[in-house]
Specification:
This protein is an alpha/beta fold. It has 10 helices and 10 strands. The protein folds into 2 domains: about 5-130, 3-Layer(aba) Sandwich (Rossmann fold); about 135-255, 2-Layer Sandwich (Dihydrodipicolinate Reductase, domain 2). The strands form 2 sheets. The protein has a 6-stranded parallel sheet, sandwiched between helices. Strands 7-10-9-8 form a 4-stranded mixed sheet, covered by helices on one side. Strand 5, helix 5 (about 110-125) and strand 6 form a beta-alpha-beta unit. It binds nicotinamide-adenine-dinucleotide (NAD).
Length: about 260
């Protein structure tokens, strides 16, 4: 069987988890890892990568700091995009136009007007694509969808309590004059679009998935993080209430 030739764009916290899965598939001779792309050379260091992915094998893998150089010089069947949402620069459109299959981590952008051209390029070129909403594939979540499949949902609510930003380690290098002092990009609103976007997108997706519905309208209220914490910790609000109106008539709430 021909192995699927893949490239990984973004070798950070989540990218290394995907690289683990890809390395396991490589051990089973199902994929061939052709290239890694990351703008920061320290993230392409084999010793660093192997400290996270013990069975990673660099033989035959090409390294790039520029996406365009990779896609022009390496023949790949599929690309995994695992970069912060505000760092995308039409790479997904370019890959779709080249006929390359796409796995893209959520969210691919913080702006709808950037996402529509990506969807159009994917549809026009008919390339297989999927977004990183892995919870849909967990049995305990898919069972809820099965249970609700013959029911109409009038109201649904998810409550998420925890740290405003999850994942204490991020590998994107944020310059000293940008973002919070702790250098975790998810804590900065212009990088993450707020924690409700960066993390709450999963619960939002689950409520769409469970109700087999789409969102018609949104209202939101939130509480700002205290000003004296913003320089150090970031400027995401600390609490949110979001209501989604669903197309079939139900209401979904996320807190
Ligand atoms: N599905 C999930 O459960 C899940 C979990 C974690 C993260 N994510 C998503 O994955 C994405 C990446 O998050 P992360 O936690 O890995 O962050 P991270 O900062 O740890 O890693 C991002 C990596 O991308 C690299 N990068 C930045 N700009 C790039 C570019 N233009 N081209 C190539 N590489 C680039 C950075 O150097 C870094 O190594 C985010 O969109 C995040 O929301 C999804």
């Amino acid at each position: 069987m021909k192995k699927l030739g893949v490239a990984l764009v973004g070798v950070g916290q989540r990218g290394l988890q995907h690289l683990q899965a890809l390395s396991d598939l490589k051990d089973e001779e199902l994929v061939s890892i052709q290239a890694l792309v990351d703008p920061f050379k320290e993230n392409l260091d084999n010793n660093k990568i192997k400290s996270y992915v013990s069975n990673y094998d660099e033989k035959g893998v090409k390294y790039f700091t520029e996406f365009n150089e990779m896609i022009e010089s390496v023949d790949v069947d599929a690309i995994w995009f695992v970069i912060p949402p505000n760092q995308h620069k039409n790479e997904i459109i370019y890959a779709a136009e080249k006929g390359v299959a796409i796995f893209a981590e959520k969210p691919q952008s913080l702006f709808l007007d950037e996402v529509f051209p990506m969807a159009e390029a994917i549809e026009k070129n008919n390339v297989p694509s999927i977004c990183g909403f892995q919870m849909e594939y967990d049995t305990w979540y898919s069972k809820v969808r099965d249970y609700l499949s013959d029911k109409e949902v009038a109201s649904i609510m998810m409550v998420n309590c925890g740290a405003v930003e999850t994942h204490g380690v991020k590998h994107t290098v944020i310059s000293k004059n940008e973002g919070p002092q702790d250098r975790i990009w998810t804590a900065d609103r212009k990088w993450s679009g707020t924690s409700m976007v960066e993390a709450g997108i999963h619960q939002t997706d689950l409520m769409r998935f469970w109700t087999n519905d789409e969102i018609e309208w949104v209202t939101a209220n939130y509480v700002e993080r205290p000003m004296h914490l913003q320089d150090k910790e970031g400027n995401n609000p600390i609490a949110y209430h979001v209501s989604y109106g669903l197309k079939k008539g139900g209401i979904a709430n996320l807190t």
